[in-house]
Amino acid sequence: MGFNPAPITAAYDISLNKFRKYYAIVPIVLRIALVFVFYNTLAWGQPVAGLRISFWNVENLFDMENDPEKNDDEFARGGRKNVTQEIYDLKLKNCATVLTDLNADIVGICEVENHFMMTELNRVYTDRDYAIVHFDSPDSRGIDCALFYDPAVFTVLESRAIKNILPGNLSTRDIVHVQGTYRDQVLHIFVNHWPSNYGGKEKAIPKRAATADLLENVMLDILADDPDADILLIGDFNEEPIDSNIIGFIDMNNGQISADPFINLMDPLVGKPGVGTYVYRGQDNLLDQIIASSGLINSGPLRILPGSMDILDQPKYRQQEGKYAHYPFRFWAGNRLLGGYSDHLAVSCTVIIDK
Fold first, then answer.
1. Which domain holds residue 8?
2. Could you read off the pLDDT of 124-160 as tens digits, one per residue?
3. CB-count exposure of residue 265 (10 Å: 0-12, 13-18, 19+)
4. What's the predicted TM-score (pTM) here?
């Protein structure tokens, strides 16, 4: 009896037909799986939306005009820094790069000369069209605090310059107070640039103590009306989070209205090797800080998003070699052009609605 291939052929045809049937289904199943993964990624992997708030010391953002009422000669045309149009444009371009990397809804600024330079920086930075809060301060160098904000996200209700007259009737930069709303919730923002150690640290500490006292009185007025007020203090405080004037401000006596009226968001970073916003004599410093009221930590509906505080610390913002490796890549070293960004790194946090 010869070999009969018919049963094998029939079985093969059945298997092939089944394979074709299931093969046709595979793309459909795959598409469904991809859609499932995509929508789950949107739901679980997307960054939390909120109000991104940053602060940056821009390191001497000056125009090229010599103002006879300010000590700005070195940055003017013909000054000892020999600033040219190309150098001026490079400074603005580099500052705009930082703003791009921050991508913040609100940016507090210090060491800017005037409103014109805020508009110039806003012109060069093209990712958003910021609105500007700025007041000319009586600082002898003419450097001011100011604020960029995105009016599509944050609405300013009022703003003011808080005059800071130091002991001996000395003038310094104002503190800028902006009160506004984010999704109908009121937020107070204070942009600070406390007196530096120029002229000696021992002489500077009482100046910063007077500044802390001034600011404490302003805070107490706000907290007296609303113990859960949402307040954010951002700035270059020229002190570490563990220094006396910062600690004294944080632990202010507010008549037991709140046990811990303020929290320094920089505290978890204190003492971490290689972490800081400024470097002095090889030591990292956390001079640039974000301080939040307890209302932003405990009360809601506005809250600081946990883990959102960070330092814009990318390799390009630090010198990578030589004697000053790890130092922020500054624009000027005395009268020598380095062409970097600033001697300070920027800090940021996110405020969310938590109802």
1. 1-46
2. 999 999 999 999 999 989 999 999 999 999 999 999 9
3. buried
4. 0.86
Distance separating alpha carbons of residues 194 and 196, to the nearest angstrom: 6
Contact 150, 105 (CB under 8 A): yes
Buried b (16+ CB within 10 A) or exposed e, 39-60: eeeeeeeeeeebbbbbbbbbbb
Q: How far apart are CA 260 and CA 251, in angstroms?
A: 7
Low-confidence ranges of the chain (pLDDT < 50): 1-46
Query: What's the total number of domains in the chain?
Result: 2
Residue 345, phi then psi, degrees to nearest 5: -95, 150
Residue with tokens 């609105």: 131
Bridge partners of residue 162, in order along the sequence: 175
Same domain, 157 and 20: no
Identify whether the C-beta of residue 49 lies closer than 8 Å to the C-beta of residue 132.
no
Q: Are 248 and 329 within one domain? A: yes
Name the nearest CA neighbour of 276 among 312, 227, 320, 307.
312
Are 141 and 279 in the same domain? yes
Whether 77 and 94 map to the same domain: the answer is yes
Task: Give pLDDT tens digits for 274-326.
Answer: 999 999 999 999 999 999 999 999 888 999 999 999 999 999 999 999 999 99
306 and 160 belong to one structural domain:
yes
23, amino acid identity = Y
